[in-house]
Design goal:
With 128 residues, this protein is of the alpha/beta class. It has one domain. The chain contains 5 helices and 5 strands, in the order E-H-E-H-H-E-H-E-H-E.
């Protein structure tokens, strides 16, 4: 799998640091909120602003809050990098291999138009 250029992620605080570290070790441009103390204390809107400034898409299960924040930012003409939404029942943190495989698949799939709000789907090959 080859990383696609321009795919930069920020994993929200609900994800363990090893997840971002594993993806980075594989060549992906992924950071975790838990790896950056200044981000751990940030409110969701501050996190959205930081991610946009860094051109990073936020990966989160905090669907309601981030969907509203993205919509408000677009409405207000603010810079937005988007959000990758995770259904915790489909891609549970208790099954990290499945979540890791889904992130790898998203990061390596051929470039296509990306929506600002997009759902992370399980890897098509059934990994995990």
């Amino acid at each position: 799998m080859t990383p696609q250029s321009g795919r930069r992620l920020l994993l929200d605080e609900m994800y363990a640091p090893w997840l971002a570290g594993t993806l980075r070790d594989e060549g992906f441009d992924v950071l975790g909120v838990t790896e950056h103390p200044e981000l751990l204390a940030a409110k969701d809107n501050e996190l959205r602003t930081w991610a946009a400034a860094e051109s990073r898409r936020i990966v989160t299960e905090n669907i309601g809050d981030f969907c509203v924040l993205i919509a408000e930012a677009v409405h207000d003409g603010k810079m937005v990098s988007g959000v990758l939404l995770v259904n915790g029942r489909v891609l549970a943190r208790s099954n990290p291999k499945k979540l890791l495989a889904a992130l790898r698949a998203w990061l390596t799939e051929p470039r296509r138009h990306r929506e600002l709000q997009e759902w992370l789907r399980p890897a098509p090959d059934g990994e995990g």
